[in-house]
Design brief:
The chain is α/β, with parallel strands linked by helices. It has helices spanning 14-31, 71-89, 115-121; strands at 2-8, 39-45, 57-65, 94-102, 109-110, 113-114. The chain has one domain: Macrophage Migration Inhibitory Factor (2-Layer Sandwich). The protein is built from 3 helices and 6 strands. The strands form 2 sheets. Strands 2-1-3-4 form a 4-stranded mixed beta sheet, with helices on one face. Strands 5-6 form a two-stranded antiparallel sheet.
């Protein structure tokens, strides 16, 4: 599973938002070698008045995933998000930061059950 939360200074139309979220989701599952349904992507444009000024578009991607991914997968994630962003925006300059946060099963719960417990009972 990969969850990608993107905060950005770039404002999107509804159509652009849907397309960008889809492309980032595709890049995430490709990088982490996951089935297509094992990703969630959330895009949060931040209004100009609620951010520090920047000369170009700013985007920070927080990627949450289970531990144990090889560094090669993480490298692919960072490169995949950068390439996807560049392809989407073309010539427009966007500063992209990717932060990968791994979380052990004892620190994640769904439906009221820790993943650690779900695996034991699974």
């Amino acid at each position: 599973m990969a969850t990608v939360i993107i905060t950005t200074s770039i404002l999107f139309t509804e159509e652009e938002s849907r397309e960008f979220v889809k492309r980032i989701g595709d890049a995430a599952v490709k990088a982490f070698r996951l089935p297509k349904d094992l990703r969630d992507v959330y895009l949060y444009p931040i209004p100009e008045y609620a951010q520090t000024p920047h000369e170009c578009g700013q985007m920070t991607c927080f990627v949450y995933t289970a531990p144990g991914k090889p560094v090669e997968y993480k490298r692919d994630m960072v490169q995949g998000i950068q390439e996807t962003t560049q392809q989407f925006f073309g010539e427009k300059k966007v500063n992209t930061v990717v932060i990968i946060k791994e979380h052990p099963d004892e620190n994640v719960g769904a439906g009221g059950t820790l993943r650690l417990d779900a695996k034991k009972n699974g």
